[in-house]
Amino acid sequence: MKKYFIIIPAFILIITSCTERIDIELDDTYTRLVVYGTVTTDTTSHFIDLSATTSYYYNEAPPKVTGASVEISDNLGNLEQLTEIEPGRYATSDDFAAIVGRIYTLRIDLQEEINGNKTYMAESEVKEIFPIDSIGLVFQPDWGENGFYEVTCYYQDPPSRDIYMFNIFKNGELMTDTINERFVVDDEFFNGSYTNGIGVGYLDQSKEGEILHPGDIITFQGCNITEDYYDFIVTLQTETGFQTPLFSGPPANVKGNVDNGAVGFFAVYGVAYSSLVYQP
Amino acid sequence: MKPGLLLLTSIFILFFIIARGDGESDPSIKRYAVSGHVKDAETGEDLFGASILVTDIGTGTVTNEYGFYSVSLPKGQYSLRFSYTGYESQFHKLTIEKDILLDITLKPLLETLNEVEIKAERSDANVKAPEMSVVKMDVKTINKIPALMGEVDIIKAIQLLPGVQAVSEGSSGFSVRGGSPDQNLVLLDEATVYNASHFLGFFSVFNNDAIKDVKLYKGDLPAQYGGRLASVLDVRMKDGNKKEFHGTGGIGLISSRLTLEGPIIKDKTSFIVSGRRTYADLFLFLANDENARESKMYFYDFNAKLNHTFNENNRLYISGYFGKDIFKNPFAYMKLGNATATVRWNHLFSKKLFSNFIGLYTQYNYGLGTANEDDPNSFLWTSVLQDYQFKGDFTYYPSTNHTLRFGVNSTLHMFDPGKARGTGDETIFTEYKLDRTYGLESGIYVSNDQIIGSRLTLKYGLRFSLYQNVGPGTVYGYDENFELSDSAKYSKAEFYKTYSGLEPRLGATFLLDEFSSLKASYAHSYQYLQLAQNSSAGTPLDIWFSASPNVRPQVSDQVAAGYFRNFRKNTIETSVEVYYKNMRNSIDFKDHAELLLNKQLEGELRFGNSWAYGVEVMLAMPQGRLNGWVSYTYSRSWRKFEDINDGKMYPAPYDSPHDISIVLNFEATQRISLSTNWIYSTGKPVTFPTGRAVIDGVVVPIYSDRNAYRMMDYHRLDLSLTLHQKPNDNRFKWDLVFSVYNAYNRHNTWAINFTQDKINPYVTYAEQTYLFGIIPAVTFNFNF
């Protein structure tokens, strides 16, 4: 929510400012392991991606880290061995689902060490997800060129402090498909209230993929994520978003939850769904 | 309270020394005071800094901020010379055998070229004044400087002085000798202005038409000031013409302004009111963006002042400022503004003891909300900061060799850092409120300017400052990892934490000869309030926080030395100053700090040391057909924090080693004057990526050490041409100013971003944003 506040005055700058490409020489730094993967309470294959950092102007897909042994275990001693289904992408079996309340540990053993380490670990706890009563669609004609559809959500927020990630699917396709578009929100401003139509997603009717047609199925996925994952997403969005001397603090590295200086995150969370069919 | 006792003792000792007298002011000789006010003959405005020289003994004094002077002399015959830059001097022969009241009115020199050349009095204050690292600017000088969009601006003018830099392109925030913007105390008629900017800083709150003069102390702070480490910017409003009714105004590209002033009772009571309103939103329809076209943004401000002279011993000044910025678009709005009110009473206890009692109030507030208030998603967020202050300042003039100043002040600060609530009936938001906190900041000081022989002037003073956190309040405790560990509640009116400090201030001026001097100074200062802001240019969303059980006051020691030399009968002033500043308990913020609406703000703070040093070289030609200055500054500013940048030292955000300013004005003919300024400064330090990771298809930067890189160097040329009306006897006078900002259209970097290519997301490149290309403007000014 705080992020919206600072968007407000920023439009002044539209009037006079100009942006242009420039050449800046950058130094290189040492290579780190990059880990990213999410596991949910859905029963399906879940993926862990391994790659390596590069110089900033590398301009190609990152080098994949192949041949590693990747396993996920829980605090009850269950172990899931992941298989490498394509270079650098490791998958669980398709009947795997995380269970609320358990703590999951990711362990990666590399064939060759990166930055002096062969073994990397990360841990994540699965938080309980709320039941969603229903969702709605509200058209906001004044926003953007052709208006926006706002996806609204109705559920009872529990008294605990929770942090949510909201994902919108249109006909099964995730609309916010990269991590820097994810909608995350801390419930500190509405904790314990009935969310009487809180905005949880936006479909820009001037954007090709987001335009709604009669019969489209809109699915809302609510995820209850950990504070560390929230911080990871928010800081990643800050560091990859537009920065100005007015509103941005000094740049700083995005902090993940993998040990031994690896970059990235291993997140496990509970999910709940609600759907509707679009009828204008 | 032991330091307070020490200070009181030193006050008594000082009095004792002065009462006993030194070699040159034998107490057995009775002294009489010649005193009065020095004023402008045409407007009746008090003149601050006019010099009074007793030519027979070669010493004298200068008028204070209220135009008052007092010279104590033994019985005898004396000649006194009264002079002020840009005014005709006056000589008075006096036989002194009792106290004499002598009010002086000085006539401004006509701005015709030849007369200025011949008759202008050349001030030797640059060399002789017992102060350094100080610049006084009058409004006439500021008016001549080419301005952004034709809006003449005090703060933009002081940014052209050596040792002072804008924090970012077009910003009203400024850094003095490498310090942070919140280390500057900005005063308007002695009331603190907490956010001196309009429009995100592109314009300042000071309307030049209502301002009389501006004085900037860059170090060597007089003992009467405290509470900030880097500088004091003392802005004073005009008192209002005591002789005749007059108006001044202007119509510019983005704003119009009108000032009216005049006597209510001639020579006794006068007023001034001044207003300004922008109409920049009229141009929004030109914007490409639809949201911008439907937006509103404007600011206005209003200054008013009333002064009344009861009799020769009592004068009253009431002044106020009120200003607001409004932004609105289809989704949301934002309002912010400052308000100040000052009541001052000048009282003469005797012809030798001047006093000034001040009561003042200041406020800064802002609010943000969503446009549709009934929507369940709608909210309103507000924040307010308020000060109530009382001050008593005294100046005692026992002899020509001593000027003794002492006083007390106390301020009650009230901070409401933020409150957010839903506005609709079916709102989903619960109220989220950061509790109000209270602080009491007090000071007591004494200082003396002492002339020893014909060459040496000493200035020494001591300030005792005190900061107290007053309940009710909740204080959170943090462990060594800055994680919340406990909290403590304090009840109403409970003093739950007290900090205090003794602040010695020393200065010496040694005249080498008639035209050159050496000066040195030392200042020890405390700062109890600071701004929670980690962006370099600063947002209007200010949150000030004070010293507390978790936050110790910032402390600074500054030493400076300088050589001052005037050439060609004081027509050319030069100076070289060096300084070193060491600061403890400096504050910076952790990576990705959350500063807004955060109850545990103090957990986001990190503490360390910082230091700065530099050399400032200045050559000025204050008068003449060709006037202006050239300055060069070399300065560095560093920080070292255990918990930031892995404990390694890093350049402060405002570290900019080389800085050059050239400001010139040429009176080409009687009707045309030309002005230009060129500035150059090393690019500000910045953190860049040195590697990248790809996470979920997004390129995530891996950064260098903090501030390991620099932006491109900044330079810019501005030009202006002023066309005056043909000289005539009409009451209505006008001029027309054509100006060009950034004349050679330099694309000065405001922000650098690294982005992914839209077509091939694995391709990354750097992009710079610049704010202003070449910007021409026309302003029409008039007065009657």
Q: Tell me the total number of β-strands of chain A.
A: 16
- Give the total of beta strands of chain B: 51
Give the number of helices of chain A. Answer: 2
Biggest interface: chains and residue counts?
Answer: A-B, 84 and 94 residues
Class by helix and strand content of chain A?
mainly beta
Summing up helix and strand content along with how strands pair, one would put the structural category of chain B as mainly beta
The Rg value of chain A, from CA coordinates, equals: 21 Å
Shape of chain A: globular
Mean pLDDT over the residues of chain A? 88
**Which regions of chain A are unreliable across 5 or more consecutive residues at pLDDT < 50?**
1-12
Helix content of chain B: under 10%
Helix coverage percent of chain A: under 10%
In angstroms, what separates the terminal alpha carbons of chain B?
A: 56 Å
SSE order and pairing:
The complex is a heterodimer of chains A (280) and B (784).
Chain A: H1 2-10, E1 18-22, E2 33-40, E3 47-52, E4 69-74, E5 79-86, E6 89-91, E7 103-114, E8 117-125, E9 134-140, E10 148-154, E11 163-170, E12 173-174, E13 183-186, E14 198-204, E15 217-225, H2 227-240, E16 263-277
Parallel strand pairs in A: 2-16
Antiparallel strand pairs in A: 2-3, 3-6, 4-5, 4-7, 5-6, 7-8, 9-10, 10-14, 11-12, 11-13, 11-15, 15-16
Chain B: H1 2-20, E1 31-40, E2 51-54, E3 59-62, E4 68-74, E5 76-83, E6 90-96, E7 100-101, E8 104-106, H2 113-119, H3 125-128, E9 134-138, H4 139-144, H5 154-158, E10 164-166, E11 174-176, E12 184-188, E13 191-192, E14 197-198, E15 203-204, E16 211-217, E17 231-237, E18 246-251, E19 255-265, E20 269-278, H6 290-293, E21 296-311, E22 314-328, E23 332-350, E24 353-370, E25 379-399, E26 402-422, E27 432-434, E28 437-452, E29 456-470, E30 473-478, E31 484-490, E32 495-513, E33 516-527, E34 529-531, E35 544-546, E36 554-567, E37 572-589, E38 605-621, E39 626-641, E40 650-651, E41 658-667, E42 672-681, E43 685-686, E44 689-695, E45 698-703, E46 709-710, E47 714-724, E48 733-741, E49 751-756, E50 764-770, E51 775-783
Parallel strand pairs in B: 1-7, 1-8, 12-17
Antiparallel strand pairs in B: 1-4, 2-3, 2-5, 5-6, 9-16, 10-11, 12-13, 14-15, 16-17, 18-19, 18-51, 19-20, 20-21, 21-22, 22-23, 23-24, 24-25, 25-26, 26-27, 26-28, 28-29, 29-32, 30-31, 32-33, 33-36, 34-35, 36-37, 37-38, 38-39, 39-40, 39-41, 41-42, 42-47, 43-46, 44-45, 47-48, 48-51, 49-50
